[in-house]
Structure formats: structure tokens, C-alpha cells
Amino acid sequence: MNLVLDRETNPDYFEIVEKRFTKLMDQWNSINKKIHDAKIPIVVPFRVKGELDEIQKELKALQAAFLEWNQKAGDLLVEPKYGYKKDDNIIAIMVHYSGILKHRISTMNHDMLLIANNYNNKIDQYKSQINFIIAITSFVLTFMGLIIALYTIF
């Protein structure tokens, strides 16, 4: 049984499944690496905000590209238009290549959720660090005020 889909008669399928998917995954890997490499310093985390804002812009661009890809992939999955030879097993080709496409869509959906969660966790970590610094500063200033007040009383 021959399950080979001809690249020349199916350019849309191979564009979606190979080229554009690979390009999206390359972008995804690059952004996810930046998210994981972004370190939030304990003492002065203020320069990190610009880095996180830049990552957010890249994430928005990735999301736009993903939504466009997902629409085209979903359309092809709902209405497959495969070119095939007369002697090929059409049903097996449809099931096999539609399964691959469905797997790629599912994988990309999962990966987009994962990168959004990674980014949100990094933002939460940044905000928590800022709040911690504010709390420590507040405590130190209050304690200094108490010492000064006690010093002036005695």
C-alpha cells in the first residue's frame, strides 16, 4: 500500500505541516528560551521589566502567526484537498495525513498554552519580587522610625 502524498500536488498541506509549523516552533523555542533565561535579581529587579515587555511583544507576534496558521490548518483538516494518484489508497492517505495534521494542531495548541503559562509565571515572579522589596523597605523604614522615636523620647 502506498501512503505517500505528493509534494507537488499538495503544496498547501506541506506548507502548513512542515514549513510554517517549523517556523512557528523555531519562534516558540526562541521565546521560551528567553523566558527561562530571564533572571529576576533579588535586590534590584527593575531592569527586568523591559526584558519582559520585549518578550511580550514577541509573544504577541507569535500568537498572531499561530492564529493564522491554526485557521489554515483547521480549514485543511475540516475540508482536506489532497492530490493523489488513481492507484493510491485514498482512505488510508486521508486518515494518515489528516492524523498528522491533527497531531500538529494539537501539539501547537498545547505549546502555546505552555508558553503563555511560562510567561505568566515569570511575570508573577517579577511582581512577587517587587512586592517583597516594597515590604522589606517598608519594614526597615518603620523600624528606623521606631528607633528614632525611641531615641528622641529617651
Describe the structure in your own words.
- By secondary structure, this protein is mainly α.
- It starts with 10 loop residues before the first helix and ends with a helix.
- It has one domain: Methane Monooxygenase Hydroxylase, Chain G, domain 1 (Up-down Bundle).
- It is built from three helices and no strands.
| Percentage beta strand | under 5%
Mean pLDDT: 91
Q: Which structural class do you get from the secondary structure elements?
A: mainly alpha
How many E strands?
A: 0
Task: Name a few traits of the molecule.
single chain, about 150 residues, mainly alpha, Methane Monooxygenase Hydroxylase, Chain G, domain 1, about 80% helix, about 0% strand
What topology does this entry show?
Blueprint: H1 11-37, H2 48-78, H3 90-153
Helix pairs in contact: 1-2, 1-3, 2-3
Concise summary:
This protein has 154 residues and is mainly α. It contains 3 helices and no strands. The chain has a single domain, classed as Methane Monooxygenase Hydroxylase, Chain G, domain 1 (Up-down Bundle), CATH 1.20.58.
